[in-house]
Amino acid sequence: MTNIEILEKFKSKRNNVYKVRFNNTALNEITVTKIIDDSSKDIFDNNCLINMKNGIYIMKKYSIHNISNPEREYRNIKMLQDSGVLVPKVIYKENDSLFFEYIPGELIGDLVESQSIGSWIDEFALWMVNLHKISGSSGNLLKGDVNLRNFIYAKGKIYGLDFEDLSYGDIRTDLADICFFILTDTPSFTIEKHTIMRRFLHSYEQHSGIKLKEVGRYLLKSREKARIRRNQNAIPLY
Questions:
Q1: pTM across the whole model
Q2: Do 230 and 138 share a domain, yes or no?
Q3: Which of 75, 101, 127 is the last residue of a domain?
């Protein structure tokens, strides 16, 4: 029997994301030993995870509205790995789920919230440079969803998470969104937050060899996108 324990359920607006432990003692059968809530009772299929070794993993179960996203995200992650961008390895793929290696570390969102000023900022800038080096006919590859909780600082390196929304365009779109998240994260607009933002942009310029211009104009666009998100979230659902 293969025992599966859900250790933690992470915050996610679009999907169900869990940290899980697998204890394999036999093949072809799965037992859920802990269920967080009733909505998670259907997250396992009897034919999956057969060859996984004992250990802790991240399981991302896609909602019915994002049913095509597992294959899309899987292809995006493979492309990023082939390009040398640091991302968690995909351990197993199901029709509606992906299983990733678990990377223990600190979320960039937590580092920003604690107003930590250190080498993680330079590594974060380097990660973004490596992503933006990938180009297409419409511009450079963009992360899209640069929520600061989609990045982990582990063993001196940055790993990116969540690659459903990759697109191509102007790199300043990503950079301005990151700066907006840094500045407005609670506590907002502190001296330390401005220091983190300026160091991030300066480090990006150093790693990329690009002199960034008119980032402020893109920051205004980031603010407008945030305003639209807030208004959408404020709409009551009946």
A1: 0.83
A2: yes
A3: 101
